[in-house]
Amino acid sequence: MNALDSSAPPRIASRGAQGSRLSTFFRESWIVFNRQIRMNLRNPIWVIVGIMQPVLYLLLFSPLLEPLIEQLGGNQFNWFVPGMLVQLGIFGAMFAGFSLIGEWREGVIEAERVTPANRTALLFGRLYRDVLQIFVQALILVALGMVTGMRFEPIGIPVGIAITVVIGGACAAASNAFALQVKSEDMMAPVMNMLLMPILLLSGIFLPMDFGPQWLQSLADVIPTKHIVDAVRSAFEGDLSFGALAPGVAWSAVIFVLAVWWGTHVFKKENA
Predict the structure, then answer these.
(1) Where are the chain's structural domains?
(2) Among residues 1, 173, 210, 213, which one has the fewest Cβ atoms lying within 10 Å of its Cβ?
(3) Around Cβ 17, how many Cβ atoms within 10 Å?
(4) Rounded Cα gap, residues 201 and 208, in angstroms
(5) Positive or negative CA dihedral for 265, 18, 118, 90?
(6) Which of 13-22, 146-155, 224-233 comes out lowest in average pLDDT?
(7) Mean pLDDT, rounded, for 9-37
(8) Coil, helix or strand for 149?
(9) Could you give phi then psi for residue 205, rounded to 5 degrees?
(10) Could you tell me if 125 and 36 are in contact, meaning their C-beta atoms sit under 8 angstroms apart?
(11) Eight-state DSSP code of residue 243
(12) Which of 115, 113, 125, 121 lies closest to 39 in space, CA to CA?
């Protein structure tokens, strides 16, 4: 009994310390998040542009797809809206690092370095902002898709949006990590364009890969984002089976973990 009594306080203290560290982490990341949100509200142009781009694609480009998608036996909005969601998550988040370069240039990152804040919290506070922005934009896009004639299964919409938010958070973390490494918009912009264009074309976001040559379809099969797009489309159609969702969900989770690890490593390295 005495042995049990003597061992209890260290375990309780350890749990208390872990809870305190977790509470401190969320408090510090929330402070960063609040600052980022205030910055966005003062200059909302990027939010507006991020919302308008997929909306314009939906209104202007999707009607051109109607004959093609009808050949596949589907609805162009059911096919196009999920693709636009993934594009929103990837493209919108991949440019998040540009604002971080501006903060570094203005000395904000250096000011955060001298604080005792958890370095991972500095990253996650920014990810909260990026994920919230993607989520709001996704809701707007889905609502517009419903108005324009998208047929959907209600149970699949939260699943599709959740996958989009995860891949968006991953891209935001990778963008922030890359931005802190290069510290130059002139270097970051061409690299982003070089990476994003093949992803856009090979993921089947705009045009069905079924109409491409076999070698192009085989190449697209090795692109993780194609499986993510397919998973979101399956979710919107109500197909929540393991075979339909597993590849896209798995790739989203793997990319998210790797991107957060990279972002955390770079933030810690920058502040070492």
Answers:
(1) 31-270
(2) 1
(3) 10
(4) 10
(5) positive
(6) 13-22
(7) 74
(8) coil
(9) -75, -45
(10) yes
(11) H
(12) 125
